[in-house]
Amino acid sequence: MRLAVFDLDGTITRHDSLAPYALGFLLRKRPWRIPALLLVLPALLGHAAGLLDRGGLKSVFIRAALGGCRRKDLERWTPGFVERLVAHGLLARAVETVQSHARAGDHLVLLSASTDLYVPAIGRALGFHETICTGVRWDGDRLDGRLTTPNRRGEEKARCVAALRARHPGIETMAYGNAASDLPHLGLVEHGVLVNGSAAARRAAAREGITCTDWR
After folding, report:
1. Rounded distance between C-alpha atoms, residue 156 and residue 214, angstroms
2. Greatest CA span in the chain, whole angstroms?
3. In whole angstroms, what is the distance from residue 119 CA to residue 8 CA?
4. Could you read off the pLDDT of 38-92 as tens digits, one per residue?
5. 204/78 Cα distance (integer angstroms)
6. Helix (H) or strand (E) holding 27
7. pLDDT (tens digit, 9 = 90+) per residue, 90-100?
8. CATH number assigned to the domain covering 3-213
9. By the 8 A CB rule, do 21 and 8 touch?
């Protein structure tokens, strides 16, 4: 058995998943809330100026789009979103690779900076044994939207992979990611694979001995 760790957005999915999840819910269920997304603009400017990190920006977006929504309404939305994503939004080669690891009896871990509003459901749909993602806070039955965990990105992803390996000592590990921010955790494992990386990310990966490939 090996440990096989997969990033989600851009590695398994064709695109980011948080914006389609939130915007799809608004368009179908709460269209009158769409103007509230203008509240994200100051946060975008703050992020561009280096005053707000990605986790903070993510929280602002979630709170503007979905803050105050009832748990049961989002739980009703999530299965249909996941079904459509799995049917139309995944890279075929990514699905084949996940299935290949499953057939080999490997322990599959989905490690994503996206949130626990829907990532665990994607993990279950694809047959992952374990999901690690960014948590969001609830205020009783209403979504607060603040983060309950560090944003699972960059060095935080590397920390998660190190913890996984400590829980599975002596097991060969493979990891797949698609961005320069994934290189820290790809460099921690025996077989790191950069998928569909940018030219700059590929150059950095080559310097660290990380395999580069293209998935469609």
Report:
1. 25
2. 53
3. 8
4. 999 999 999 999 999 999 999 999 999 999 999 999 999 999 999 999 999 999 9
5. 36
6. helix 18-29
7. 999 999 999 99
8. 3.40.50.1000
9. no
Supply 188's token pair. 């921690």
Strand locations in the chain (E)? 3-6, 107-115, 130-134, 136-139, 142-147, 173-177, 191-195, 211-213
Give the predicted TM-score (pTM) of the model: 0.96
How far is the C-alpha of 11 from the C-alpha of 214, rounded, in Å? 10
Q: What number of CA atoms fall less than 13 Å from residue 34's CA on the CB side?
A: 10
Q: Is 117 exposed, middle or buried (0-12, 13-18, 19+ CB in 10 A)?
A: buried
The C-alpha atoms of residue 157 and residue 181 are separated, in whole angstroms, by 9
**CA-to-CA distance for 184 and 160, rounded, in angstroms?**
11
Q: What is the pLDDT of residue 142?
A: 98
- Location of structure tokens 């709170």: 63
Domain ranges of the chain: 3-213
Question: Measuring CA to CA, how many Å separate 132 from each of 8, 100, 116, 128, 176?
Answer: 11, 21, 8, 11, 14
- The vertex-134 CA angle with 3 and 107, nearest 5°, equals 15
Identify whether the C-beta of residue 176 lies closer than 8 Å to the C-beta of residue 6.
yes
φ/ψ of 20, rounded to 5, equals -60, -35
- Cα distances from 143 to residues 34, 72, 176, in angstroms, run 17, 10, 31
| Spatial separation of the C-alpha atoms in residues 84 and 27, rounded to whole Å | 15
